[in-house]
Amino acid sequence: MNAYGAWIIGLAVFYTALLIVLGNIVRRKATSGEGYWVGGRNFKPWMVFVCITGLFSGSSFISILELSYLKGISAGWYGIAEMLHVLIIALLLIGTFRKRMMVTVSGLIGDTFGRMAMGVAGAITAFTFPMWSVATALSFASAVSVFTNIPITLSVAFAAVLLLIYLQAGGMWSVVTTQTANTIMFFVMFIIGTIAFFINPGIDGIKHLAAAKPAMFSATNVGLQVIISWFATFLINVLLAQAAFQMALSCRTPEEGRKGMMMAFGANIFFVFFGVLFGLAAAAVVPGGTRGMVEVPRYLATVLPAPVVGLFFLGIWACALGWGASCQFSGATSLGRDVTGAINPALTDKQKVTYTKWSLVVLTGEMIILAFLRSEQAAWWNVFAWTLRNGATFAPVVAALFWPLATKRATAVSLATGFLAGLSWYAMGHWDPVKFFLNVHPVFFGMSVNMLTMLAVTLTEKAGSYKVGGQLSAIRKNIAMAVTLMGGLSVVAIVTGFNWLFTKGLLGLAGFLVVAAIFILTISVTTPVENKKDVKSLKFQEA
Fold this sequence. Notes:
Number of domains: 2
Distance between the termini: 82 Å
CATH topology of the largest domain: Sodium/glucose cotransporter
Number of strands: 2
Keywords: Membrane, Transmembrane, Transmembrane helix, Transport
Number of helices: 22
Helix content: over 70%
Pfam families: SSF
InterPro entries: Na/Glc_symporter_sf, Na/solute_symporter, Sodium:Solute_Symporter
Strand content: under 5%
Radius of gyration: 24 Å
GO molecular function: transmembrane transporter activity
Order of helices and strands: HHHHHHHHHHHHHHHHHHEHHHEH
Protein name: Na+/solute symporter
CATH architecture of the largest domain: Up-down Bundle
Structural class: mainly alpha
Largest sheet: 2 strands, antiparallel
Shape: globular
Strand order of the largest sheet: 1-2
């Protein structure tokens, strides 16, 4: 370990100790279930701001920094897609979910469709969150390994245990306290990185890079299909972003939660800009590498002294912790609150809090195991998590919010079939994180099966007790027309551009849009028959 490594590790240990102290200070605020899971619904806008910034902006910065070294400014689209994701949640969903007093997505499913659905959804949700945590932790660990002899897996284990220690104390209050400290470190990191940039390569160095590698300054250098996939992923995730909901819904009012998210939306501009800038700077000074998170520390070591580089990487550490803490805590909430509540509905909130703390231990163990199983491909765990969680829970969440016809049996079957379909499709692609079976992303296949199953079982089970059309509201009519247009255009695109879509890896997305259009159209035009007279009338019309 050289001087740079010693400073990075030393500062990380000091920062870690500080977080543990802060986490224990707020322990007294988390005495009840609501206090532990959602901060007693007492968060102010700035608290929501630091939570969402630590959750999304920090992880986006790592992804953009990594990719901009290789692909240039086009990596910024990842952050823009994430910003759109936050904006939609803030403008359209906070009010609805706050009125329902929602804590978790799996809890929302359980409130509508019963204990079995809640237990299954909670288990799937809980055990996928550590996969996202380990993916970001692996990226950070690869950067640390440049200056130290610490194995990547050991770095991830250290991060996992740290998350366990300070989350145990105050739950959501520990999260907001930690995210406040992380947000401060983000901006310290930006200042240090900017100083390094002006020392070398400076503006002239970037101009030279543009002349030598003009593709680095192409808006689509990363690939059009990749950019489209980013936006599609974040848009799909709007209804399933449990960790973000849990933070924003800890607010005192929906308006304050919305304000905090809008503040986070604006702050993310800095993360996109500086992520791209620092990646380009590293590409100009230390070209030829294959990993941005490896080359950026090497670049910084050429222009800054060890203590300052250590401070910069304390910001990267904060990014990893900001994402990991949110994921681990939200996953533990689903496991400790929803799964145990499904198994034994007689449990008190106090008992569920205890189980949530034990769930943190379980998910910590899972995170460490995952790092040992596949430490060389951080992206693999992201794909696996998206496939399992989204493939299972997308249709049940939409049905819980917008389709009163949906049944408990349809929900249970759709959870199982969506999960298994996505898992099977990934397996047929030999578990490759990039090259999928038939060039179709497994999450699109899983979610399509998930929606079709929900429709088929519900419409069969409720045959004769619903009507199609009738006096639909203007909103329902507009939605029906919009999704019909979307589905029609997708069908035309598939028919006329099948080969292009297949080659670009967009065929799965196009097929998913067709299925989603059918799913949303059905929800829009079907309504329950209100009474027995209406049922008799409906049966007469069918005859």
